[in-house]
TrEMBL record:
UniProt-listed GO biological process terms: defense response; phospholipase C-activating G protein-coupled receptor signaling pathway
Gene3D superfamilies with a match to the protein in the record: 2.60.200.40, Probable inorganic polyphosphate/atp-NAD kinase, domain 1
Domain of life: Eukaryota
Function: Phosphorylates the second messenger diacylglycerol (DAG) to generate phosphatidic acid (PA), another important signaling molecule. PA is required for plant development and responses to abiotic stress and pathogen attack. May be involved in the accumulation of PA during cold stress.
Record field: catalytic activity: a 1,2-diacyl-sn-glycerol + ATP = a 1,2-diacyl-sn-glycero-3-phosphate + ADP + H(+)
Any one annotated GO CC term: membrane
Boundaries of every DAGKc domain copy: 38-191
Subunit structure: Monomer.
Annotated Pfam families: DAGK_acc, DAGK_cat
Protein name, entry field: Diacylglycerol kinase
GO MF annotation list: ATP binding; ATP-dependent diacylglycerol kinase activity
PANTHER family: DIACYLGLYCEROL KINASE, DIACYLGLYCEROL KINASE 5
Keywords: ATP-binding, Kinase, Nucleotide-binding, Plant defense, Stress response, Transferase
Length: 490
């Protein structure tokens, strides 16, 4: 596709008076974009320069060459909450002064984030929590291993080209993309506070960046238990537990020990597949005791109607359970599929809409069961769709299990006495995404959808009325600590 470079790029350039608070023209810099009509598609770009091997750094350089350097940010240097807080404060100040250009930028602004699913989730969490006056929609560039978020919205799952024509082609797609809301899911974990040592992190517990210790506990929180510690956060794609998370944990552990071996996406995917074999995922019935199966680990409850909890039966053979928001898992597969009319009628199941306030709960026995996803209509064991789901872990034969949020795994200790570890997932508002017109994700509000359901927001539920509970905490807790290697978010 041919472009007239300067005319095309003007659609995305943002005036320096927006990017630099207090900017003046005393330096005689010509700001070609400073007119009342404003750019058609102003963008702010966030790049994880450590994702994708050298690709992240190369992509950062290309975006800065094509756009203004001050509208392209390296997430290794500045956190997105600080960037957006600064720019939106400036936009609002200019808007109050009657600046029409600033008003147009607020209305049209779009964000681009390049990195793995963890990086994309970081930015989504920040936008969600900052409660901006006009939250911008977000496009995701696939620079990770799984790239489930980009794939679900039509941006692909392979690492993109980093040269100028490739980046300009992507910008053209961003300008033509449609907006789509997706559900946010709040996750709250309660476990016994340690008698000694720090609470965040609890050694040797290494939680994902989106799940953090929360010291104040609201009285409105029904899981409030004296002597326990609360962790909370959010996710947009999935929460999983069991064998799949164990393989992912092995992969991340290996990459942490030998980062030099994980510079190529194809090599990463090949290593992931090998670990699936060595971890016994293909021979789980022989190598893993039944005590590791989900039904033996946890009691599971779901809420289909507000205020009404019911037990969820988990078949004894299920070794991995996935709570899925988007139709993309493990590199682009759709574990839920599309239930036929009989299933929709008899079991009250629907297709996996991304904005219906429901999360799909799917189970797998082993890797052979997972291979059914390669078939045109393959799917896992559909367990339920729910507005909330709660896992209650009591003392069992094993002292740990593995969990994963949007690609980030951890090894979760289980009770060793009469304590309980509880994990609850609940609907928590929505965030705006950018999607191509042929993306896999489907909205309940799309006229082409075959079945419409009433989306219902639980964020005002009586159990979550306090500000402490309702916030993701993204502006603070989603800020990745300095000691965390950003490459692990890919």
């Amino acid at each position: 596709m041919a472009f007239s470079d300067s005319n095309f790029l003007k659609n995305f350039w943002i005036s320096n008076k927006i990017l630099v608070p207090g900017f003046g023209f005393e330096n005689n810099e010509i700001d070609y974009e400073d007119d009342n009509d404003g750019p058609e598609c102003p963008v702010l770009v966030f790049v994880n320069s450590r994702s994708g091997g050298q690709l992240g750094g190369n992509l950062l350089k290309t975006y800065r060459a094509l756009l203004k350097e001050k509208q392209v940010f390296d997430l290794g240097e500045e956190a997105p909450d600080k960037v957006l807080s600064r720019i939106y404060a400036n936009l609002e100040n200019l808007k109050l002064k009657g600046d029409e250009y600033a008003q147009k930028v607020i209305e049209r602004l779009r964000l681009i984030v390049a990195g793995g699913d963890g990086t994309a989730g970081w930015l989504l969490g920040v936008v969600c929590d900052l409660k901006l006056s006009h939250p911008p929609p977000i496009a995701t560039v696939p620079l990770g291993t799984g790239n489930n978020l980009p794939f679900a919205f039509g941006w692909g799952k392979k690492n993109p080209g980093t040269d100028e024509p490739s980046v300009m082609s992507f910008l053209d797609q961003v300008m033509k993309a449609k907006e789509m809301k997706i559900d946010n899911w709040h996750i709250l974990m309660r476990m016994r506070a340690p008698k000694e040592g720090l609470c965040d992190p609890i050694a040797p517990l290494e939680l994902p960046h989106s799940l953090h210790a929360f010291h104040r506990v609201s009285e409105a929180d029904e899981l409030n238990v004296e002597g326990c510690h609360t962790f909370r956060g959010g996710f947009w794609n999935y929460f999983s537990m069991g064998m799949d998370a164990q393989v992912s944990y092995a992969f991340h552990s290996e990459r942490k020990l030998h980062p030099e071996k994980f510079k190529n996406q194809l090599v990463n995917q090949s290593t992931y597949a090998k670990l699936g074999c060595t971890q016994g995922w293909f021979f789980a019935h022989l190598l893993h005791p039944p005590s590791s199966n989900i039904a033996h680990l946890a009691k599971v409850k779901i809420m289909k109607r507000r205020g009404h909890w019911e037990d969820l039966h988990i078949p004894s053979s299920i070794r991995s359970i996935i709570c899925l928001n988007l139709p993309s898992f493990s590199g682009g597969f759709n574990p839920w599929g599309t239930p036929n009319k009989d299933k929709q009628r008899d079991r009250d199941l629907t297709p996996p809409y991304v904005d219906d306030g429901l999360i799909e709960i799917v189970g797998f026995r082993d890797a052979w069961h997972g291979l059914v996803l390669l078939a045109p209509n393959g799917h896992g064991t559909r367990l339920a769709q729910a507005k909330r789901i709660r896992f209650e872990f009591h003392k069992v034969a094993t002292d740990h299990t593995f969990m994963r949020i949007d690609g980030e795994p951890w090894k979760q200790p289980l009770p060793i006495d009469d304590d309980t570890v509880e994990v609850e997932i609940s609907h928590h508002g929505q965030v705006n995404m950018l999607a191509t017109h042929d993306c896999k994700s489907r909205s309940v509000y799309d006229p082409s959808s075959v079945h419409l359901v009433d989306a219902e927001d639980d964020s005002d539920d009586e159990d979550s009325i306090s500000d402490e509970f309702r916030k993701f905490g993204a502006a603070n807790t989603f800020k990745i600590p300095d000691e965390v290697d950003h490459a692990h978010l890919s």
